[in-house]
């Protein structure tokens, strides 16, 4: 019996470090967060001929400091956790295009074509999209112009720069409140600005904040403008009850108003929900045959590390089953 060249040969694991454009891989994994890394481990252990294309390893884990809900650890340093995932993946000698961003995916008759921002085209029979989410911008005047000069999106990365400063945090959920906690730790004065009426953060965080000095809570207010020439000097907020605007002198603005799925490369190919998340079934199948989705970029609820890792594992096993059924049976 003649089988096509989908092979379970172990020698496939001894390969070049960079993916090769001339190879048609069994599987390409896009992303380097927990979903993609878990998928890579499962696919490698199934001896699939795979490659990874990612901007970085770690994804959103690198934006936080401690993780307290990764099974087996009461608390683990987020960088250590991300590093241990990365090390596990690297133990399999999988070709990785690190630092590359995919810009488009095309479905051709027998393969997916994946285009990258460094003008490479890779091919594969199956694809796992695990590109996660990114911070939603406020889209107000001054935001883009002052990014990195007072406007920030990641407290773990940037809070230490605001030691003793006055900082506005836009948002009313857990992320905004934990950002405020990080800023208070470095001695900043914090003004939390919540667009929707009523704070969304956990009660315990709200209580803690209400009892803390150096925090001002502005509920039902809107950030309308960020001011400053070389760096942030102030923020204009509008009271949504009475429409009155007020300028707050501030040295920084942290924007914590949610996340957007990184769906751009596949948004014209697969079905998305209203939030732009890739619709997947419980086997991580998308609307396109051979294309699987995993983690935060998908419709799977509860965006968490353990859930993304589980979904990545499922996506890899589903891709493997798909290949076996399509090419070997
Ligand atoms: C501040 C913060 C704190 C958090 N704390 C916790 C916590 O304590 N516990 C918990 O369980 N969860 C926490 N989370 C959520 C958790 O980090 C995410 O649910 C998880 O990282 C999602 O994993 P993912 O692999 O789906 O996506 P991501 O982690 O978003 O990874 C996506 C990956 O895809 C890459 N990528 C994106 N677009 C492209 C492209 N076009 N081409 C190539 N590569 C691309 C990215 O660079 C990244 O490597 C936190 C999140 C944040 C932001």
Entry summary:
With 329 residues, the protein is an alpha/beta fold.
What are the defining features of this structure?
single chain, 329 residues, alpha/beta, FAD/NAD(P)-binding domain, 2 domains, 7-stranded mixed beta sheet, 5-stranded parallel beta sheet, 6 helices, 19 strands, elongated, binds flavin-adenine dinucleotide
Model description:
There is one protein chain. The chain has 329 residues and is α/β, with parallel strands linked by helices. The chain has 2 domains: 10-134 and 260-328, FAD/NAD(P)-binding domain (3-Layer(bba) Sandwich); 151-255, FAD/NAD(P)-binding domain (3-Layer(bba) Sandwich), CATH 3.50.50. It is built from 6 helices and 19 strands. The chain has helices at residues 34-45, 78-90, 155-158, 174-185, 203-210, 305-328; strands at residues 24-30, 50-54, 66-67, 76-77, 96-98, 102-107, 112-116, 121-129, 133-135, 151-152, 166-170, 189-194, 215-219, 221-227, 234-239, 245-249, 252-255, 259-261, 291-293. A hairpin with an 8-residue loop joins strand 3 (66-67) and strand 4. Helix 1 packs parallel to helix 2 (78-90). Mean pLDDT is 93; it is low at 7-16.
Mean pLDDT: 93
Number of helices: 6
Query: What is the percent of helical residues?
Result: 10-25%
What does the largest sheet look like?
7 strands, mixed
Question: Structural class given helices, strands, pairing?
Answer: alpha/beta
Number of domains: 2
């Amino acid at each position: 019996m003649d089988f096509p060249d989908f092979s379970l040969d172990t020698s496939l694991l001894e390969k070049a470090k960079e993916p090769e454009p001339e190879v048609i891989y069994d599987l390409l994994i896009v992303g380097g967060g927990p979903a993609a890394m878990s998928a890579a481990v499962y696919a490698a252990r199934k001896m699939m001929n795979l490659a990874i294309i990612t901007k970085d390893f770690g994804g959103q884990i690198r934006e936080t400091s401690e993780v307290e809900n990764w099974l087996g650890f009461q608390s683990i340093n987020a960088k250590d956790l991300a590093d241990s995932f990365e090390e596990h993946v690297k133990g399999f000698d999988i070709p990785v295009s690190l630092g590359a961003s995919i810009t488009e995916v095309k479905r051709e008759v027998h393969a997916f074509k994946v285009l990258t921002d460094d003008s490479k085209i890779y091919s594969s029979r199956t694809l796992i999209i695990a590109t996660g989410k990114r911070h939603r911008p406020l889209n107000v005047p001054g935001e883009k112009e002052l990014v990195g000069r007072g406007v920030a999106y990641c407290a773990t990365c940037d809070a230490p720069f605001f030691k003793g400063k006055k900082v506005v945090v836009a948002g009313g959920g857990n992320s905004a409140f934990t950002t405020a906690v990080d800023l208070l730790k470095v001695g900043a004065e914090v003004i939390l600005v919540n667009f929707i009426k009523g704070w969304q953060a956990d009660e315990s965080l709200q209580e803690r904040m209400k009892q803390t000095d150096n925090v001002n809570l502005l509920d039902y207010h809107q950030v309308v403008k960020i001011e400053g020439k070389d760096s942030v000097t102030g923020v204009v907020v509008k009271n949504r009850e009475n429409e009155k605007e007020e300028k707050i002198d501030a040295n920084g603005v942290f924007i914590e108003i949610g996340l957007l799925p990184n769906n751009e490369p596949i948004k014209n190919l697969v079905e998305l929900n209203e939030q732009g998340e890739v619709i997947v079934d419980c086997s991580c199948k998308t609307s396109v045959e051979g294309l699987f989705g995993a983690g935060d970029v998908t419709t799977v609820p509860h965006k968490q590390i353990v859930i993304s890792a589980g979904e990545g594992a499922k996506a890899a096993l589903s891709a493997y089953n798909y290949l076996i059924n399509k090419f070997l049976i």
